[in-house]
Design brief:
- It contains 16 helices and 13 strands.
- It has 433 residues and is α+β, with helices and mostly antiparallel strands.
- The protein has two domains: 2-223, Cytochrome Bc1 Complex, Chain A, domain 1 (2-Layer Sandwich), CATH 3.30.830; 243-432, Cytochrome Bc1 Complex, Chain A, domain 1.
- Strands 1-2-3-4-8-5-7-6 form an eight-stranded mixed beta sheet, sandwiched between helices. It has a five-stranded mixed beta sheet with strand order 9-13-10-12-11.
- Helix 3 (113-125) runs parallel beside helix 8 (212-223).
- The N and C termini lie far apart (48 Å).
């Protein structure tokens, strides 16, 4: 990697097939950008290093609650003016909360990027926390919890996570609970914001048609007086629980999430794990899709997925099927996992999966939102910025032997099952043994 100073002392980083610029303001706020001169738009996002794992019990759901409340604006810029301002520009804006970070983003014409920066500046630094808006938005969050509770797919995933990471900071739901949201006071919300939202915990990422130095100058003017302490996050070792978390419910379809502990975010085995996951259940040519849906017609939806975090991870499979077919489906899933552990991937599967990863990466580079997300996430999590060529090389280096080793590391258990349907736990116990 070559590093050379760019104007005004900022640092420009150039790697094969990729160019980004990174600047750190005196108060610790980082700004990272990638210029896309062929487009006429820009996407900007504020990545905040806080999520549900950082909450104490009385703050359960505070990260997500804050995501809602910050759109209510400041004393100088209220929710109505934020919405009107973005609508008048034909812009798109939104936010999302995860277990480890919260993101606020907007996609605008390149000429309107300054407005988006102004809005983010007010939202992040000077939230009003008006009591009437807290009370109103509290009802919105409670309705969101109700909606998720009525969705058996969401419930099955949540049951899986709670069982897999029982007692770990990753276990609690991102939305919080009805009790925690109902009882959360303005002081608790404001205290969480003050503790977790500081310039040291925020990365502002942007991609599109932009000028890095001009953007850094504007951000410096609007954010330069922001202060706050460095935010820490203890890493907690994860155990290896096993068993079933069941919601007994009379449903027309059973919803099942079966999985195991996986690799943490920066584990070098993640490249082989990505390839294995794609072959197992990542698309319409995957083993699970072909066996369970195409050949046997036992499910409409079946797929596998990974959940990597800073100190642990998970690999899991979701399937929805008629309750009386659930045992057969789970038996087929365990059989496919056993095949992976015994034999790994074929050469044809390996090459097809590599092609998929390379193609997906190329397509994502055409969109400023995807590029912004990649920059912000990698900078915030400290995983390191890799060029397209470097990522492709990592994928190309994956061998059939690597996939066999990874399958043995992941898919031999211990197994956890999150299930929603008309079952008793002992009916499904054999599938997590």
């Amino acid at each position: 990697m070559l590093t050379r100073p760019s104007p005004k002392g900022h640092q420009g980083f150039y790697t094969s097939g990729m160019h980004y610029q990174l600047s750190t303001l005196p108060n610790g706020l980082r700004v990272i950008t990638q210029d896309m001169p062929s487009v006429h738009s820009a996407t900007i996002g504020a990545w905040v290093d806080t999520g549900s794992r950082d909450e104490i019990p009385e703050e359960a759901g505070a990260s997500h609650f804050l995501e809602h409340l910050l759109f209510k604006g400041s004393e100088a810029l209220d929710a109505h003016r934020i919405a009107e301002g973005f609508d008048a520009l034909g812009a798109r804006h939104n936010a999302f909360t995860s277990k480890e970070y919260t993101v606020y983003w907007a996609k605008v014409r390149d000429a309107d990027l300054g407005f988006a920066v102004e809005v983010l500046s007010e939202m992040l630094q000077r939230p009003a926390f008006r009591q009437e808006e807290i009370d109103s938005e509290r009802h919105v969050v409670l309705e969101e919890i109700n909606m998720n509770e009525d969705d058996p797919t969401d419930v099955a995933h949540e049951l899986f996570v709670r069982k897999l990471w029982a007692g770990h900071p990753l276990a609690p739901p991102i939305l919080g609970t009805r009790d925690s949201i109902t009882g959360m006071s303005r002081d608790v919300i404001a205290g969480y914001w003050k503790r977790r939202y500081t310039p040291h915990s925020v990365v502002i990422a942007a991609a599109g048609r932009l000028d890095h130095d001009a953007l850094v100058e504007q951000i410096g003017e609007l954010f330069g007086d922001w202060t706050g302490d460095i935010v820490g996050r203890p890493q907690v070792p994860a155990g290896a629980p096993q068993g079933i978390a069941l919601r007994n419910k009379d449903t027309e379809q059973a919803h099942l999430v079966l999985g195991t502990p996986g690799f943490k975010r920066d584990d070098e085995r993640r490249w082989a794990a990505n390839v294995v996951d794609h072959v197992l259940g990542g698309g319409m040519s995957s083993r699970l899709f072909r066996e369970i849906r195409e050949q046997r017609g036992l499910a409409y939806a079946v797929h596998s997925f990974r959940m990597p975090f800073v100190e642990t991870g998970a690999n899991a499979i979701y399937v929805g099927t008629t309750p009386n077919q659930a045992p057969e489906v789970l038996e087929l899933i365990r059989a496919e996992l056993a095949k992976l552990v015994a034999s790994g991937l074929t050469i044809e599967e390996l090459e097809r999966a590599k092609g998929h990863v390379k193609g997906s990466l190329a397509l994502s580079l055409e969109d400023s939102n995807s590029r912004m997300s990649r920059l912000g996430r990698d900078e915030l999590t400290g995983i390191g910025h890799m060029s397209v060529a470097e990522i492709v090389a990592k994928i190309e280096d994956v061998t059939a032997e690597d996939t066999l080793a990874v399958a043995a590391d992941i898919y031999t258990g211990p197994f956890v099952l999150g299930a929603v349907g008309p079952f008793e736990a002992d009916e499904l116990a054999s599938f997590v043994a």
